[in-house]
Amino acid sequence: MGRYIVRRLLISIPLLLVISFLTFILINLSPHDPAELVLQAQEVPVITEELLVQTREELGLDQPFLVQYIEWAVACLRLDFGESYVTGKPVWSILGPAFFNTLKLTLVSVAVIVLLSIALGVICALREGRLVDKSVRGISFFLTSMPSYWLAALMIWYFSVKLDLLPTSGMDSLASYVLPVIVIAISYAGIYFRFVRSAMISNLNEDYVLYGRACGLPEKKITKHILKNSLQVSVSVFCMAIPIILGSTVVVENVFAWPGLGSLSVKSILSRDFPMIQAYVLVLAVAFVLFNTLSDIINAVINPKLRNDL
Amino acid sequence: MTMLRNIWKDKLAAISLSILAIVLTAGIFAPLFAPHDPNEVNMKLRYAASSWEYLLGNDHLGRCILSRLIYGIRPSVLWVLAALAGSVMLGTAVGFVAGFFRGKVDAALMRVCDVMLSFPGYVMTLAIVGIMGVGLENILAAFILTKWAWFARIIRTSVLQYAESEYVRFAKAAGAGSFHIIRRHIIPVTASDVAVVASSSFGSMILQISGFSFLGLGVQAPTAEWGMMLNEAREVMFSRPELMLAPGLTIIIVVSAINFLSDSLQAALDPKLRTSTSKAAEQTSAVSAKQLLGREVA
């Protein structure tokens, strides 16, 4: 088992290197000159050639490409992503807190999604084809077809403005979590519960269920076995939900003015704050790879058959 | 043709298909269907309720909402369809090459896919928009760049599966060339997988593009686009929430129609799903596992 974990971790290192390299060259693909953008952001009135050369030197843009990359990558390991073009503050001092705010929102949402999906999935699987199953699936179909920002706006209008029950935006108290979490959970639970449902149904047809029934085991005990087996399959899917949602809260965060990565990334894009965008992409891509690795390892712990894959 | 007939038998799918056909035609021939010019400003009619002349009423600049919805089909649906077609073609080509020729080519292409797939879709799109600037064309380019790897993966798996089948081996033994085998024996059988995968991501792409426009990163004003219309409506959300209704419901109807169609397409194309129940269950779980990894909700 230890060997599997080590090998799985080693495999992700080259991937991380490639990702960091791609993130780095992203900025060089831009049609804009970074030095010019910095000067524009600092509202320098007249941009002279001299000033541009000087700024390039300050940013280290006059050095060979590979040197630039290595220096940048080493600095990133210390969470030093440079300074924001717009505010001049270190990127991590702004990105760090935003990352943890988004992480909090994501973890709460994923917890709700997991509970909802398992509950709905089990109910629907046990009543496959009946009214409950059909109506839950029908409703979830419409809910997943709904733009989340639209749902969010409706909820703000109803719960915050009309009923004045919950805050409209921000992250001041626990109550601020309610609406964003509901919106995210509704969008995703509709997809994830179908997964639990079909895993349950395919287990229902397994021989061990038939055997259990033949032996006269009570239905409750059989259901417990089915549940255990189908959740094993679902664990990796739920693990991957964390990075997926971490990277896609953009819209919801903007509607609810959540002080997280989503709001920050849109603000940075609109103000062309390249170091911020770069750090945002890098942090999320690394989180994605790490969670992917983690979910593979968890899977291997649960299911020893998978350990031979590497 | 049997496929179409199977879909037609399913009432819900038939309705979905008709809705989509109407939407696509209305979008292509927007000037013929729209009762007014979508950008015609008429300050006298600001926030006017629906009337016989303006069926869905007017927005904050007195523009005809119905006409804007109809013109909005172009960026919101037609261009998304084009981007989808682009990424499916790219993904299919890569998937075919990797799955059919195997070996080093396969390994190299799959590593590239691994790298592409390790950037979450939203993040990659935001990165590209951030670097290239806001606008619909950059988001579409980002879609093609981010989605193809996922299609390539799925197509490769299904090509691998068919390339091992008896009749392909027989064709090889009989001396048929690779190109002939791909064209005659592999494309037809993998086409169903392509259709299912493509249709299942069509809906989420529409949601995403409207989401980006809603955030102000996609289509710029005054172009009519559904997400953009919702963005404009959001500013007066508390005083006139009814403006959110028309574009929001349009998106829901179109995306639900696509999702329903995708599901029945899956059932119609997959003979295994129609015959035995136990096989069907296995199949659905495999497909939904595939779908989950690529689906991101807006």
TrEMBL record, chain A:
Its main location: membrane. Residues 99-295 form the ABC transmembrane type-1 domain. GO terms for biological process: transmembrane transport. InterPro entries: BPD_transp_1_N, CntB, MetI-like, MetI-like_sf. It is a multi-pass membrane protein. Keywords: Cell membrane, Membrane, Transmembrane, Transmembrane helix, Transport. It is found in: Cell membrane. One of its GO terms (cellular component) is plasma membrane. The chain crosses the membrane at residues 9-29, 105-126, 138-159, 174-193, 233-257, 277-302. Belongs to the binding-protein-dependent transport system permease family. This is Nickel ABC transporter permease subunit NikB. It comes from Paenibacillus sambharensis.
From TrEMBL, chain B:
It is a multi-pass membrane protein. Its main location: membrane. Gene3D superfamilies: MetI-like (1.10.3720.10). It is found in: Cell membrane. CDD domains: TM_PBP2. GO terms for cellular component: plasma membrane. SUPFAM superfamilies: MetI-like. GO terms for biological process: transmembrane transport. The chain crosses the membrane at residues 12-34, 77-101, 122-145. Residues 73-262 form the ABC transmembrane type-1 domain. Keywords: Cell membrane, Membrane, Transmembrane, Transmembrane helix, Transport. InterPro entries: BP-dependent_transpt_permease, MetI-like, MetI-like_sf, OppC_N, Staphylopine_ABC_permease. Belongs to the binding-protein-dependent transport system permease family. This is ABC transporter permease.
